[in-house]
Amino acid sequence: MRVILAAGTTETGLVDGISAAGAAPEVMVHTPAADAEILVYGEPAIAPVTPVSPTGCPTPAAITRAVREVVGFDVTVLAAGLAKPTAAPTVDLEAAPGADIREPVAVPDAESIFERAREYGASLPEDEDELLIGETIPGGTTTALGVATALGEPIGVSSSLPANPLERKRAVVERGLEASGLEPGDCAGTPLEAIRTMGDPVQAAVAGVAAGALDRGTRVTLAGGTQLVAVAAVLRHAGVSGRLRLTTTSFVAADEGVDLEAVGDRLDLEIEVTDPAFERSDHVSMARYCAGEAKEGVGMGGALSLVPDGRMGDVRERIETVCARLGVDDDRTRTELETEDSRGS
Amino acid sequence: MRVILAAGTTETGLVDGISAAGAAPEVMVHTPAADAEILVYGEPAIAPVTPVSPTGCPTPAAITRAVREVVGFDVTVLAAGLAKPTAAPTVDLEAAPGADIREPVAVPDAESIFERAREYGASLPEDEDELLIGETIPGGTTTALGVATALGEPIGVSSSLPANPLERKRAVVERGLEASGLEPGDCAGTPLEAIRTMGDPVQAAVAGVAAGALDRGTRVTLAGGTQLVAVAAVLRHAGVSGRLRLTTTSFVAADEGVDLEAVGDRLDLEIEVTDPAFERSDHVSMARYCAGEAKEGVGMGGALSLVPDGRMGDVRERIETVCARLGVDDDRTRTELETEDSRGS
């Protein structure tokens, strides 16, 4: 089993208050590079940060890595617009970081990223009969809303924050459409144009790998939440008709702003939801997920779907080990969290 | 356990008759890219060839991959002078392919490759307490002889051909020294200068990763034959005094031109020899190794050292599976081999 992680950045992620993928904007730019290192090596290598949300919720990379340590799977990282170097080995898609979608053009190289990713997906040996494709890109739910709106697809989007700043995202998307001279639905049938104007480089990478692998007869699972629902919409608008599955976490499924069943029907997308039963743990990291933080990312839901029956307890234990290695569960953090909680943030 | 594979090329490999790492010079340039893909994916992806010697001996990548399929280990590929693209994820050392050592300068960027590799080796998490470092570079035993001669280290070098074209290699090295204005031993104590004038980019990469990892207290095993003996000499001449082990195959140890015990003493290098007992198989691939072809490469000896007692039979069986996947053991190949054999080549 191979998990492919498309890692990139978009300046959209720096818009105030739309992402929790990092404690502050100046460290968030390192998040995808650090996530890739955590998944590959078990902790950051040259990336100077461990991504945690402002309230101390560890990156989903910690969860996906814990699953990897329990069940074992291969990882390939796609460099799809990284703004900072990573020590993780990567397949380089020669993608630039994405611009703010409030600019006229957000991903000038959308088409070439897609084509390189498709070539890569089509080159994978037939022996690899199933691929999970995940993502890490701060701000990705806003670009997902941007692309879905440009395509005219009414999908809800989730958030890495417990309270989804949806009005803020909608305002960013509205300004983006205006800057690009678009009305909602104007890019129906031209999904790479939707990404070019309103998306991010990771969407082009995931869509390309999925298209290439499906061409070759490989089963594809989009391992993620609403960001990958938007990619599924891109694929359907590109005329890709192969069987597609989306595997995500129970935290995304529980989000009231998201109707997975409806988008599954609309996009002919098989939906699988995995529940890691984090409520059975009193570890601070898992408690943050239960409180609605992070929810998904770095292929978390898809990775959890690989855990055999009866071994989810091992995964929860391993999450504590990984978090200890990442310095997430020390007393300082716990105290800070309690202080935050008592302030009701 | 992580196996790091430094993959690169040198135009020295194109000198007529010095390497068997590919059926012909025009395909040999793809060998490192293909080896990396075989190790990562189990077969070539975008590389257009499966590396086999002129008589049909499969690349050691097939053996190392078979071990990986039996025992499981992580792989990181370092792009250290690749001349062709690979679909394997890589850590990019920004190394150019090496020039022919008969030019005045063979590796102009030796120092920057070494420094980037050292930074990478030092960045690996402490959790990774042991590293195996292997190589793939056609022509690498000739550049090994070049560097060892420039350092004044009397090491013998092995060959991927059953009959080592040692005179030819010596002649290439002599012309190289002349072109660089060097006498044997002139680079003693300045090993990066030895690589710059007489070596290849993969040597700089392996030496750098080893130096960085040793700095950090990680145990390092050089997984290879005389090419990595030359790298051990580079490390000792660079003043690196940490504990170093070299693990190689019984095929290298059986080479009369190589005295592993003597170089082990000279370079303070712990020597470990692994014997996969290929004589117990009548499969064409393993028979070629018993006939003295290939011998080592792509971390083969080091990978074999990871096989637990009693499981080498599983590895030999898996080699047949991998070879079948690579199309190495079909009737055509076997017939060709028999024809070659009957011609006494």
Layout of helices and strands, plus pairs?
Two copies of one chain form a homodimer.
Chain A: E1 2-7, H1 25-28, H2 31-41, H3 60-71, E2 74-80, E3 90-95, H4 110-123, E4 130-136, H5 140-151, H6 166-179, H7 191-198, H8 201-215, E5 219-223, H9 226-237, E6 244-249, H10 250-253, H11 260-267, E7 269-274, H12 284-290, H13 300-304, H14 312-326, H15 331-342
Parallel strand pairs in A: 1-2, 1-4, 2-3, 4-5, 5-6, 6-7
Helix pairs in contact in A: 2-3, 3-14, 4-8, 5-6, 5-7, 5-9, 7-9, 8-9
Family (chains A, B): Belongs to the UPF0284 family.
Protein name (chains A, B): UPF0284 protein OB955_09100
Describe the structure.
- The structure is a homodimer of 345-residue chains.
- Chain A is of the alpha/beta class and 345 residues long.
- Chain A has one domain (2-342): Nicotinate-nucleotide-dimethylbenzimidazole phosphoribosyltransferase (CobT), large domain (Rossmann fold, 3-Layer(aba) Sandwich).
- Helix content of chain A is 44%, strand content 12%.
- The first copy, chain A, is built from 15 helices and 7 strands.
- Chain A has helices at residues 25-28, 31-41, 60-71, 110-123, 140-151, 166-179, 191-198, 201-215, 226-237, 250-253, 260-267, 284-290, 300-304, 312-326, 331-342; strands at residues 2-7, 74-80, 90-95, 130-136, 219-223, 244-249, 269-274.
- The first copy, chain A, has a 7-stranded parallel β-sheet, sandwiched between helices.
- In chain A, strand 5, helix 9 and strand 6 (244-249) form a beta-alpha-beta unit.
- The longest helix of chain A is centred in the middle third of the chain and has 15 residues, at 201-215.
- Chain A is globular, with a radius of gyration of 18 Å.
- At the A-B interface, strand 2, strand 3 and helix 4 of A face strand 2, strand 3 and helix 4 of B.
